[in-house]
Amino acid sequence: VRKSTLSFWFEALTDLIFPPYCLNCKRRLPVRQLPLLCNDCGNAIPYITSPYCLCCGKPFSTGKDHLCGACLNDVFLFNRARSALSYSGRIPFLICAFKYGRDLSTLSSLAFIATQSRAYKELKTPDIIIPVPLHKKRLQQRGFNQALLLAQAIFPQWKKRIDYHALVRHQNTIAQTNLNHAQRKSNVSGAFLVKNPKMVESRRILLVDDVFTTGSTANECSKNLLSAGATEVEVFTLARVIKI
Ligand SMILES: [Zn+2]
Ligand SMILES: [Zn+2]
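Above: query sequence and zinc ion SMILES. Below: predicted holo structure tokens.
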């Protein structure tokens, strides 16, 4: 009881010295809440909803859920991919604040937002959660793996299932940002390696990353996991780039 009283006063004091602000528009908030957004910014969160591709999760503007052209041609190897949000509006800004600014209050808000999404609610319970790995050089530069922090923040109930050693990135690829689909595909080709196939064999895997762009990274990871004997690979990303 004493500890919780203390933490109450500590929080009240923190709010007084550092009053809570909306992460997006910086408007003052009456209380510290999750997500740390005002009503206007909270209402503008671009959640992805139906209709979308039953396989890769690509959203459609009208109609019913169906397979997209790429999935009809079996472009992707993963069983399913879903994203909580569209990478639009202020989402790129918030993701960058967390990823490059090491802003952990943004991480907890983004994780909370992810748990409110349809994609999250429809996830099956996985045997293992694998965050897309960074090459060790990139990890040293950044100091953390954003996919691992997201997995830990979004799935605290499955914390013990998170495995960031099973899959490694043994090739340091160049940043994908300015590459087209074909270049992205060849850039990540052969970049990953299943270090411990026993860990993934006959397991249902949930692969987690921050952003799904062309799906090349998720696909390359899936290729490795499935050839190492994984039963199923489901991909969950916080956001997805949607080309119109
Ligand atoms: Zn706001
Ligand atoms: Zn598709």
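Residues 22, 24-25, 27, 37-38, 40-41 surround zinc ion (ligand 1) (CB under 6 Å).
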